[in-house]
């Protein structure tokens, strides 16, 4: 087969066969097909999509491009959660310990930041010593010991996705329903799960800004999961405004610790609890939503969820002292405050521009080769519905380099809209797709 011919056919809205897709994914994995060729194919798929048969073949080829895990000998039900990406979305970090304490084994595999959205792995690696790159034997050892692993893909698990994931970020093809759904589901299906909960974001800070497109993505992934025998549901959640108050890496770890102490922001706590409820319901650990919520809240109140997080941090080489005392997390000590220029009510706090500003500070990557600065970030102090006066702080930026600060400030100049009247509140969770 010939990569150029396949690219041209998909460029012209043609159809690829299952054998052609399998050959393409296999050849890309073993470096026979070059990055620039797969980048062209990704753009062709971004523009023309994949039909149902092509998507099934693409996902299957990704799934079997490497090892598939088997945790069937673990007595506890196995479940995971995945988010399609948002600004300030650190839900996986407090959610994992809370659900693990309730008796669910969680082999959680997360990703790195894509564009203006943060990555769970980047956040976790701001904990001194914490290792996310675990070989299969260590991954299994941590899961057996703690019931929770917070790691990235191993070299042998869905290697095609690991390569394509970074390529999509650098080629402007992230917001493609076929590429997003096959990327997420190939990784999750390789984990040997009983259940999967998806957090599908919509709004300015999400890759799916349109609600209808986000719903299509949710339904596509739920369908893929169920077709492979994994009980899958999706929550559709609002990402027009950053989730929580912190946008960055180390500061998002600190905010995750606040959630585990019962002191987190209401919006972040709400999404974390609702996803946890679904995980406990799907695995049969709780008989109903009320019981599930009670068990999750109890894990926070009695300190067991925080203890579980510290246990996992230590098992993965991190310093648990930084969890006990978040002041030990990376910090630059240099801060800049953005103040309101007029009085009124915040009607817009734009997640996308705040995410881009955080990336410009160094908290994210514009290119896959970029290095993350774990200490920089943004604290969002004013969100929709908040009343402000002239001079009221809207946000505090932690920065390292003046030039990066100046660039971020230019982006943030119009991130907040102040109106005479308070906006109507909008639901944070729009729907449950089953």
Descriptive notes:
This protein is α/β, with parallel strands linked by helices and 434 residues long. It has three domains: 3-49, Up-down Bundle (Transferase, Pyrimidine Nucleoside Phosphorylase, Chain A, domain 3), CATH 1.20.970; 79-326, Pyrimidine Nucleoside Phosphorylase, Chain A, domain 2; 330-419, Alpha-Beta Complex (Aldehyde Oxidoreductase, domain 3). The chain is 45% helix and 15% strand. It is built from 17 helices and 13 strands. A four-stranded mixed beta sheet has the order 1-4-5-13, sandwiched between helices. A four-stranded antiparallel beta sheet has the order 6-9-11-7. The protein has a three-stranded antiparallel beta sheet with strand order 10-8-12, with no helix packed on it. Helix 10 (211-227) links the parallel strand 4 and strand 5 (231-238). Helix 5 packs across helix 12 and helix 9 (177-189) packs parallel to helix 10 (211-227). It starts with a helix and ends with a strand. The model has no long low-confidence stretch (mean pLDDT 95).
């Amino acid at each position: 087969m010939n990569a150029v011919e396949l690219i041209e056919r998909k460029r012209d809205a043609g159809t690829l066969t299952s054998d052609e897709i399998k050959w393409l994914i296999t050849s890309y994995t073993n470096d026979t097909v070059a990055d620039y060729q797969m980048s062209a194919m990704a753009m062709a798929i971004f523009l023309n999509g994949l039909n149902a048969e092509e998507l099934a073949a693409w996902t299957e080829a990704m799934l079997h491009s490497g090892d598939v895990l088997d945790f069937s000998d673990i007595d506890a039900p196995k479940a995971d959660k995945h988010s399609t990406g948002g600004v300030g979305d650190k839900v996986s970090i407090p959610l994992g310990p809370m659900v693990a304490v309730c008796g669910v084994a969680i082999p959680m595999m997360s990703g790195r930041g894509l564009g203006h959205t943060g990555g769970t792995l980047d956040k976790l690696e701001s904990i001194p010593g914490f290792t996310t790159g675990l070989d299969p034997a260590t991954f299994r050892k941590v899961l057996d010991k703690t019931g929770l692993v917070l790691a990235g893909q191993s070299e042998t698990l869905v290697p095609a996705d690991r390569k394509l994931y970074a390529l999509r970020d650098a080629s402007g093809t992230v917001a493609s329903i076929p590429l997003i759904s096959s990327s997420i589901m190939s990784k999750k299906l390789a984990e040997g799960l009983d259940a999967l909960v998806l957090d599908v974001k919509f709004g300015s800070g999400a890759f799916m800004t349109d609600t209808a497109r986000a719903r299509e993505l949710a339904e596509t992934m739920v369908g893929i999961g169920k077709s492979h025998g994994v009980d899958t549901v999706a929550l559709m959640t609002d990402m027009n405004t950053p989730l929580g108050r912190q946008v960055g890496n180390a500061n998002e770890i600190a905010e995750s610790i606040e959630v585990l102490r019962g002191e987190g922001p209401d919006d972040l706590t709400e999404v974390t609890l609702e996803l946890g409820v679904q995980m406990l319901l799907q695995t049969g650990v709780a008989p109903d939503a009320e019981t599930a919520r009670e068990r999750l809240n109890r894990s926070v109140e009695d300190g067991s969820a925080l203890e579980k997080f510290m246990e996992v941090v230590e098992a993965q080489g991190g310093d648990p002292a930084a969890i006990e005392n978040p002041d030990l997390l990376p910090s630059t000590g240099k801060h800049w405050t953005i103040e309101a220029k007029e009085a009124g009510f915040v009607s817009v706090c734009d997640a996308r521009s705040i995410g881009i500003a955080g990336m410009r500070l160094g908290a994210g990557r514009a290119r896959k080769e970029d290095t993350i600065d774990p200490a920089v970030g943004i604290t969002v102090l004013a969100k929709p519905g908040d009343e402000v006066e002239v001079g009221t702080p809207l946000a505090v930026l932690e920065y390292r380099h003046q030039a990066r600060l100046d660039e971020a400030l230019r982006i943030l100049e119009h991130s907040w809209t102040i109106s005479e009247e308070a906006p109507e509140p909008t639901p944070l969770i729009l729907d449950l797709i089953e």
